[in-house]
Amino acid sequence: MKKIEDIYFASALLSYGAELKTIDRSDTKHQKFLFAEEDLSVFIIDNGVFRKDILSLDAVEALHISNKLLYPPTYPDCIRKIKSIIYS
Fold first, then answer.
1. What is the mean pLDDT of each run of 10 residues along the chain (88 residues)?
2. I need a surface site. Which of 18, 37, 60, 79 has the fewest CB within 10 A?
3. Residue 33 pairs with which residues in a beta bridge?
4. Cβ distance 40 to 16 under 8 Å?
5. What is the distance in angstroms between the CA of the first residue and the CA of the last residue of the chain?
6. What 3-state class would DSSP assign to 34?
7. 59-54-9-61 Cα dihedral, nearest 10 degrees
8. How many CB atoms lie within 10 A of CB 1?
9. Is the pTM of this model over 0.90?
10. Which helix (H) or strand (E) holds 15?
11. For residue 41, what pLDDT is reported?
12. What pLDDT is recorded for position 2?
């Protein structure tokens, strides 16, 4: 399982259909979201070219950090879902 602390990256994974296994609430200020290690089909923009690719969670995280990952229309809903999980 992969531990994610960034709520926006966790939301991106949810919007692409990644399976959220559990939440580590041992540190209330830094909750960790545990996702199943799986490959995801994602949309990427690289040098002005759009493409779809199947990548590991680590590769998706690198794209998220470099702002090359395109987010599905469900992304804002997933942000709200993650925030409600945190505050519930």
1. 90 92 85 91 90 92 91 93 86
2. 37
3. 4, 23
4. yes
5. 23
6. strand
7. 0
8. 14
9. no
10. helix 7-15
11. 92
12. 87
Number of domains in the chain: 1
- The 10 Å CB-count burial string (b at 16+, else e) for 36-70 is eeeebebebeeeeeeeeeebebebbbebbeeeebe
Single-letter amino acid code for the residue at 80 = R
In the block, residue with structure tokens 């290690």: 37
Report which of 46, 40, 47, 45 is spatially closest to residue 2, judged by C-alpha positions. 40
Residue 16: the pLDDT is 92
Site of tokens 């949309």: 43
CB atoms within 10 A of CB 14: 22
CA distance linking residue 29 with residue 63, whole number of Å:
26
- Is residue 35 within 8 A of residue 1, CB to CB? The reply is yes
Instruction: Find the domain containing 17 and state its range.
Output: 2-87
